[in-house]
Specification:
2 domains; 52% helix; alpha+beta; Pdz3 Domain; four-stranded antiparallel beta sheet
């Protein structure tokens, strides 16, 4: 059952990504030969107009195959015959649709479950917040230059800040105050803490509040993704801290299992939360200029725009091929790491 749910989640995210490429390609007058979910042998499908719609055997993937994208053609509606701005728009549409999906699901989730406001419910004894005079009921407005809208942003900022001094803006009785806190390491929790906890209950939102906060939720997910990548690049986290499809399936399974006692609504909302995270992550990763991904293709278009000369198809093919092999190798390493962590009970 867990695997089925995971496939549905992955499939939905990939469908939305490829649909972004598809719908924008159509609007830009590009001929789309195939729109498929999955890789490998064709299972089922149908053809409508010029496009073949199908489902393939391996569910983790998909494609919007456009005329002239991979092969030379004289068709005036081919991808390569369109101006750079249209090609860039088509390529960028996939990641942008991932952000759109994350936003829509976040709005539904927040409208249903509400938000945990960045309001102090308890000040821990012996920690920086107590020493600085923070009190129950204080609302944290900003951490450094980052405006805060959810309590989880306080927790995430503290995690990425790693004990560095942070300027805290907070509101008490309608007046704004400012102080600087130096997080203290907790031996019990094995992490740095400011010494505050958030509210036990969520604040309910109306329709417009849910829409507004969905933007902040999307911003939060994108920010966390970029900061996590930064930690990976700088060596603060390693391959073992990453999760691939196997690890994500495990997380989805645990989420469903732990949510079941609270009812179907909580199961669905927690799956929405995971989908928002995964979709935002996919959007960010695909915009990074990595060969074989959308960001790499956008980089080639940028080079073409600056040099006013198309990059050799052969060169682009070699670079994308090398990038694809590297990504597959990374996937294998992460897969082995996930299996090892599950086997040893570390996940």
């Amino acid at each position: 059952m867990t695997i089925v749910i995971a496939i549905l989640v992955f499939g939905f995210i990939i469908f939305f990504h490829e649909f972004g490429h598809f719908i924008v390609a159509k609007r830009c007058g590009v001929k789309v030969n195939e729109f498929c979910l999955g890789f490998g042998p064709r299972l089922i499908g149908f053809k409508k107009g010029e496009t073949d719609y199908c489902l393939r055997l391996l569910p983790l993937g998909g494609a919007c195959v456009m005329e002239g994208e991979e092969e030379d053609t004289d068709d005036e509606r081919s991808f390569l015959k369109k101006p750079i701005w249209k090609r860039a728009l088509i390529i960028a549409a996939g990641p942008l649709f991932n952000f759109l999906l994350a936003f829509i699901l976040a709005a539904i989730m927040l409208g249903t479950m509400g938000i945990s406001e960045p309001v102090v419910s308890n000040v821990m004894e012996g920690y920086p917040a107590e020493e600085a005079g923070l009190q129950e009921g204080d609302r944290i407005k900003a951490l450094g230059n980052y405006d805060v809208h959810f309590y989880k942003e306080v927790t995430a900022f503290n995690f990425f800040n790693k004990g560095k001094p942070v300027e805290v803006n907070y509101i008490r009785d309608g007046k704004e105050y400012k102080t600087t806190l130096i997080p203290k390491f907790s031996e019990e929790d094995q992490k740095y803490l400011l010494g505050v906890t958030g509210p036990a209950e969520n604040k309910k939102l109306n329709f417009f509040e849910a829409i507004g906060n969905a933007f902040y939720e999307l911003r939060y997910q994108i920010t966390v993704t970029f900061k996590s990548l930064g930690m990976l690049i700088t060596g603060q986290v390693g391959i073992r801290d990453m999760s691939g499809p196997v690890g994500i399936v495990k997380v989805i399974g645990d989420t469903v299992k732990n949510s079941m006692p609270d009812g179907a609504l909580y199961v669905v909302m927690n799956l929405f939360n995971i989908t928002v995270l995964l979709s935002a992550n996919l959007g960010v990763m695909n915009l990074i200029p990595i060969p074989a991904l959308d960001g790499g293709r956008l980089l080639f278009l940028l080079i073409e725009g600056v040099s006013r000369k198309k990059v050799s198809r052969k060169v682009e093919g070699y670079v994308n091929g090398a990038g694809f092999i590297a990504l597959m190798a990374l996937m294998v390493v992460v897969l082995i790491s996930d299996v090892a962590k599950i086997a040893t009970g570390q996940m």
